[in-house]
């Protein structure tokens, strides 16, 4: 009988610890379409032929990781592409204003006493991206992989929240 109680206690403790580490962080992800200023419709080549300029839609990304402990993000996957990441500590609440929309304020991260990191995509390529990250990126628009202590954690956002478009001059 003592063995059963001991087993139940160990299992309960393991579940409690796992729930604590999984709930220890929260991921916020936003994207904002960037509308370019004046873009020429056609380009004239040297031989006199005209070609149409294709303008790809561009986005600003705003990614925040809130954690109760010290964490180190290592990879960010957006739409199936992997990026290395740099971080900056920020205070909360994190607010966003868009001058093109009359400077109305939107709260991106609510006030919290936990550590909040803003993640910025870096141009550096990763030599060995995570295979689990690639698998998660196939089903989620945003995947953040980070280390907390000696463990690796994966946080996902199915679909990034869209902010009002940014209009360039």
Brief summary:
The protein is of the alpha+beta class and 169 residues long. The protein has helices spanning 2-22, 131-137, and strands spanning 25-35, 42-44, 50-52, 58-67, 72-78, 81-90, 94-97, 105-109, 115-122, 142-148, 151-157, 161-167.
Word description of this protein:
With 169 residues, the protein is α+β, with helices and mostly antiparallel strands. The chain has one domain. It contains 2 helices and 12 strands. It has helices at residues 2-22, 131-137, and strands at residues 25-35, 42-44, 50-52, 58-67, 72-78, 81-90, 94-97, 105-109, 115-122, 142-148, 151-157, 161-167. The strands form 3 sheets. An 8-stranded mixed sheet has the order 11-10-5-6-9-4-1-12, covered by helices on one side. Strands 2-3 form a two-stranded antiparallel ribbon. Strand 7 (94-97) and strand 8 form a beta hairpin. The termini are far apart.
Describe the global form.
elongated
Number of helices: 2
What's the structural domain tally? Answer: 1
Strand content: over 45%
Distance between the termini: 75 Å
Helix amount: 10-25%
Class by SSE composition: alpha+beta
Output the strand order for the largest sheet.
11-10-5-6-9-4-1-12
Compute the average pLDDT.
83
- The Rg value, from CA coordinates, equals 22 Å
Largest sheet composition: 8 strands, mixed
What is the oligomer described by this structure? single chain
List segments where confidence is low: pLDDT < 50 over at least 5 consecutive residues: 17-23
Order of helices and strands: HEEEEEEEEEHEEE
Task: Compute the number of strand runs.
Answer: 12
